[in-house]
Amino acid sequence: MLKIAIDAMGGDLGAAPIIDGTINALNEYNFHALLVGKSDIIKPVIPTSLQHRVTYIEADDVFDMHESATDVLKRRDSTIYKAVDLVREGSADAVVSAGHSGATMSLATLRIGRIKGVARPAIATLMPTTAKGVYSLVLDVGANVDCKAEHLFQFAVMGEAYAKNVMGIKKPKIGLLSNGEEASKGNEATKEAYTLMSKMSSFVGNVEGNNIFDASVNVLVCDGFVGNILLKTSEGVAESITNIIKTNVKHSPMAIAGAALMRKVFKILKQQVDYAEYGGAPLLGVKGCAIISHGKSNAKAIKNAISQAINFANSNANHTIEEELRKFEQ
Fold first, then answer.
1. CA-only gyration radius of the chain, Å
2. Would you state the CATH architecture of domain 1-118+285-315?
3. H helices present in the chain, as ranges
4. pLDDT digits (tens, 9 = 90+) for 293-320
5. What is the pLDDT of residues 93-150, one digit of tens each?
6. I want to staple 215 with a disulfide (CB 3.0 to 4.6 A). Which of 69, 129, 176, 202 is the partner?
7. Torsion angles phi and psi, residue 23, rounded to 5
8. What is this structure's pTM?
9. Do residues 38 and 7 make contact, with C-beta atoms less than 8 angstroms apart?
10. Where are the domains of the chain?
């Protein structure tokens, strides 16, 4: 049975949604939860029927969202440090945290270590598309703000491996996010990356921002600076559209009637743009499985993050990444 280490105290909303999400996941998936935090808070909430599938790892220190990520290396008694170290020791198959994303990334990279051949791990995230049930994988979305061409190339290899092994896409299409489709477009790093990625049979060339959502490609590669802005902008646009619709509907009886008829469509739209549906972002390139969840994750998001961790840990993605990078080195 897979063992998933969960930082039970690290999120913006405290322990409650993390514990609730873990309980929901335990009821739906077959795994053993290693809950890291204050056991006097956590244990009484876990149903008696699930106690045999939960281990409590005592930790009182919670690394705050406003602290510098590098400081976490000194905080060996913090929940996130102990949770990551469970993977490093082999006591857990994956770690899930809704805490400080930079701290989680730093610890996973330095404590668990990188896959051989990987210069920099990348945070990947799923984005909704116009095609039903189809998502695009974007990386990096925040781990590396300054990237060289070789890093972008490695992101492409890692993204392809994840798409094949975890998302179940047999022949994923890989695109390089740029300001134009032509090979001549982009900055120096992306132009050089274009040349390197051309070695991959799955590479379709440069793609633009609108291609993220039209399902024309499965994996989009960019540096963490662009990717993080893209991610936050997408979240903001989705929220703004929802608010605009709500505001305008209230001022028109006809719109209210139309909204009632479109209720099912609005529900589907909300599901597609809600980050809770995806749960968290996998950190690709480390020698284990780490899922970084949104700080404001609710119980649904945590449950789905655990689901992602299970799928990732059960996959052959990390082995594929190492094998593919070795091929291109030859």
1. 20
2. 3-Layer(aba) Sandwich (3.40)
3. 15-28, 39-42, 79-88, 101-107, 149-165, 188-197, 224-250, 253-261, 263-273, 299-313, 317-329
4. 988 889 999 999 999 999 999 999 999 9
5. 999 999 888 899 999 999 999 999 999 999 999 888 888 778 899 999 988 888 999 9
6. 129
7. -60, -45
8. 0.88
9. no
10. 1-118+285-315
